[in-house]
Amino acid sequence: MKIIIINGPNLNLLGKRENDIYGNETFNDFFEKLQKEYANLEISYFQSNIEGELIDKIQEVGYNYDGIILNAAAYTHTSVGIADAVKAITTPVVEVHISNTFSREDFRHKSYISPNVKGVIVGFGLQSYELALQSFLK
Ligand code: DQA
User: PROSITE patterns of this UniProt entry (predicted)?
Assistant: First the structure.
């Protein structure tokens, strides 16, 4: 089973970014553990701060992977382009957020992506990614 995690802007700073909200662990450390724990799956990882690169990656994997775990970060709340890409593809997408976006500022309550995904997992820290992964195993 081929699953990809796609992370949007500023998520390369996990571990040193607003630790009270996003925790102390780097994504690479978390990702290595996840790969070991689910060694039977083919899990890859892509991160970009650039909207068009995220769209290119969604298009590239969107017809031949079994699942996409997408944290579009700030673009969640702004990007019609990423929303359209998610709508265009056939691979199911689970949207994740590390923080509980609904307990934060109003502008984080709106997601352009949510209407076209299989499901949304919000607010469980990095565990959100693992819960999303498990949703593809059922
Ligand atoms: C985030 C929430 C977004 O509002 C924010 O812009 C992020 C991260 C999260 O995972 O909690 O960068 O997607």
Answer: DEHYDROQUINASE_II
